[in-house]
Specification:
The complex is a heterodimer. By secondary structure, chain A is α/β, with parallel strands linked by helices. Chain A contains eight helices and seven strands; from the N terminus they run βαβαβαβαβαβαβαα. In chain A, helix 5 links the parallel strand 5 (135-141) and strand 6. Chain A is globular. Chain B contains 14 helices and 18 strands. The radius of gyration of chain B is 21 Å and the shape is globular. The chains are: A alpha/beta, B alpha+beta.
Chain lengths: 248, 450
């Protein structure tokens, strides 16, 4: 099957990595279904990709923090498009006060966006993905390497994605379904703009190119950029007496 | 760069040092890089702000004035394009070079565009820039059909000649003070199949004015002149003409990797001292100041600054200033003679003089009218002798009915600008009427008391 007859779904497409993924997929002539919360961003991106690349693009505005069944809504948007070849989930919603001070409603919102939504969407789209021997791309975070005082709920949700990745791999052979998990380090987005970070930020376009290039190339888990794997090992191996004193 | 604020609204600000392209003003600013429409509108209503494109305006128009600087890098998309009519809908952060590449690939081009390919569409509107022959093509307002503007606490407004017409007119050369320009619809034109560049040497600026007037309808028309006292005004008028010999290669735009960068690091030394200027002018004079004709690739005409990296870096850390004055036809001969005398007396260092023909009507603060525009670029404008020359040039220009280009000249103060723009107070009142609470602010607006 060539790329012109494939559809990819990008959830969280309005900015950062999601937008970069949509642009990289458009260059490969995938038909696209783009999901984000603000229709203004989606319309602009969808129009642009259609004009620049002549591909079919559908925009679906969903508030993942409140949408009870996002998978069903997205599945409904696939009607009439080529077979679903890739589901990419670059979803990430964090907040600065995620430091053990959140109330139940805030915790629920973080979990709904970062965990419930990926789970529900994967469940709903599994039949279509299996039919096309497609690829699921889960996007984790280096914040899940080891729990710390910041990003408490966010990191917990991201670590649960590792479990989802393992479940999918344990259940499906790569000949049936490719499952890819990317644990991302700092990226150049509104979230990191102006922040004093201990390590360099990656450009979303560079990360997106790598992810799109690897679509359909088996199941795997990796850090992006790759040197974050070494950082993760060091963080995991740090003696507790040192780790507990770290603030960043 | 350090993060200074972040709120529940999700916007992030970073304290960032920003300098104007001519290096005459720098400031530590709170910079926001919104990447979604929600974030573009996320600043608290009472926070002063100013939109920033690529930051290639010579003057500090997109930062300063205690305003949050909103970088529109992420809003750079072509939203719609009609291959039949040449109508193109873009976000304001789209860069001219990218727009030209997109359009040329589809058999169209933007006929009015500045020389720097990184200039954004929003910046071109805010400055009402001119292109390669403003006498034929007008200024940027001639290629804009409508604009979408955002202001604090207000729904996005669409302005065009038929809808919110006063806001539409004021936004050109409104320097971003009438609201944040978010989107625009452009009217493109069919490019010439091929062009030739005719060189017409001139002995002085008065002769240049005559030659320019005789070539009004050329798609490309501008002059280069020596600014040294002994050779003052000697130069060449470059006339780009449509050729009968079609050559598809000529329509290809260079890739983005050839674009002049938005920010150019200065050399640690100043190349444009008297010896450097003499060497460059002698070389350019020998190369250009002889009659002749040669094929002209449209790309070279559209992106003339792509080879100017060394030129701009050569101004060194002291930077440069461009005084650009539009002198009415009736006064240009007298003005040219008086300017030659001034240069002979004060012996300023002038790196370059460019001449262009204008044939429009000024509106607000726009740089337009009927006359000859002279752009005079000088190194180290804060040096006493250079400063004195620029002040004398302003006095001379005003005495000859000259109009200043406010978006070019960092050395103008409010009093001079007021004398150099007919109807200054009325234009300022028009801007203020669309800038409620003065919430759109910049260093340019502060310096010129706009």
């Amino acid at each position: 099957m060539n790329d012109t007859a494939r559809t990819a779904i990008v959830v969280g497409a309005s900015s950062g990595l999601g937008r970069a993924l949509a642009e990289a997929l458009a260059r490969k002539h995938y038909a696209l279904v783009l999901i984000a919360s603000d229709i203004r961003d989606l319309d602009a991106l969808a129009s642009n990709l259609n004009v620049e690349h002549g591909i079919a693009v559908r925009a679906l505005a969903l508030d993942l923090a409140r949408e009870p069944d996002p998978g069903a809504r997205i599945a409904g948007a696939l009607s009439g498009l080529p077979p679903l070849a890739a589901l990419l989930l670059p979803i990430g919603f964090s907040r600065e006060d995620d430091d053990l001070s959140l109330d139940a409603a805030a915790i629920g919102q973080l979990l709904a966006t970062n965990l419930h939504a990926p789970l529900a969407i994967v469940h709903a789209l599994l039949p279509a993905l299996l039919e096309a021997h497609g690829t699921i791309v889960l996007v984790g975070s280096v914040s899940a390497v080891r729990g710390r005082r910041r990003n408490v709920v966010y990191a917990g949700a991201k670590r649960a994605l590792v479990s989802l990745y393992e479940s999918l791999r344990q259940r499906f052979h790569p000949a049936e379904l490719n499952v890819q998990l990317y644990q991302l380090g700092f990226m150049e987005t509104n979230l990191t703009h102006g922040a004093k970070l201990p390590l360099p930020v990656a450009k979303p376009a560079d990360v997106a190119r790598t992810i799109v290039r690897r679509l359909g190339r088996g199941s795997s888990s990796r850090y992006l950029p790759a040197w974050w794997a070494l950082v993760a090992i060091i963080v995991r191996c740090l003696p507790w007496a040192i780790y507990r004193r770290m603030k960043d | 760069m350090t993060k200074s604020a972040s709120g529940a609204r999700g916007f992030a600000l970073a304290d960032t040092d920003i300098a104007s392209f001519d290096r005459q003003f720098s400031a530590r600013c709170r910079l926001q890089r919104p990447d979604r429409y929600r974030l573009l509108a996320a600043l608290p209503r009472d926070v002063p702000r100013i939109a920033r494109g690529s930051g290639v305006s010579y003057v500090a128009a997109s930062f300063g004035g205690d305003a949050v600087c909103q970088a529109l890098d992420a809003f750079d998309r072509v939203l719609a394009f009609d291959t039949e009519s040449g109508r193109m809908r873009v976000e304001a952060g789209a860069r001219v070079g990218d727009v030209q590449r997109f359009a040329l690939a589809r058999g169209w081009y933007l006929p009015v565009a500045p020389g720097h390919p990184k200039a954004t569409i929003g910046g071109c509107i805010a400055a009402d820039v001119h292109g390669k022959n403003p006498a034929r093509d007008g200024t940027f307002r001639a290629v804009v059909e409508d604009i979408e503007l955002w202001s604090p606490g207000r729904e996005a407004l669409v302005a065009s000649a038929a809808q919110n017409a006063e806001l539409f007119a004021t936004t050109f050369a409104g320097f971003g003070l009438t609201g944040t320009i978010a989107k625009a619809t452009l009217k493109l034109a069919r490019p010439p199949a091929a062009m030739v560049l005719r060189r017409m040497p001139v002995a002085n600026l008065a002769e240049a004015a005559r030659v320019l007037r005789e070539a009004t309808n050329a798609p490309v028309l501008y002059g280069w002149h020596d600014g040294r006292p002994k050779h003052f005004g000697r130069g060449v008028i470059r006339v780009g003409l449509v050729s009968d010999v079609a050559d598809a290669r000529e329509l290809r735009a260079p890739s983005a990797t050839h674009d002049l960068p938005a920010s150019i690091a200065p050399y640690p030394f100043a190349l444009w001292n008297r010896a450097g200027i003499a060497a460059a002018n002698t070389w350019l004079g020998a190369r250009w100041c002889r009659p002749g004709q040669a094929p002209l690739a449209l790309a070279d005409a559209l992106f003339p600054l792509n080879d100017a990296r060394t030129y701009f870096a050569g101004f060194g850390k002291a930077g440069m200033a461009e005084a650009q004055w539009l002198i009415p036809h009736a006064r240009i001969e007298d003005f040219s003679g008086a300017l030659a005398e001034l240069v002979a007396r004060d012996k300023p260092r002038i790196a370059l003089i460019a001449s262009k023909l204008f044939a429009g009507a000024a509106d607000g603060f726009s740089f337009d009218g009927a006359g000859i525009a002279l752009a005079i670029q000088v190194p180290a404008p804060t040096q006493k002798s250079q400063r004195a020359f620029l002040e004398a040039l302003a006095t001379l220009s005003i005495a000859h009915g000259g109009r200043a280009n406010l978006i070019k000249d960092s050395t103008l103060d409010a009093a001079t600008a007021r004398s150099a723009i007919a109807g200054f107070d009325a234009a300022r009142a028009r801007l203020a009427a669309h800038n409620e609470g003065g919430l759109h602010a910049s260093e340019l607006a502060r310096r010129l008391a706009l």
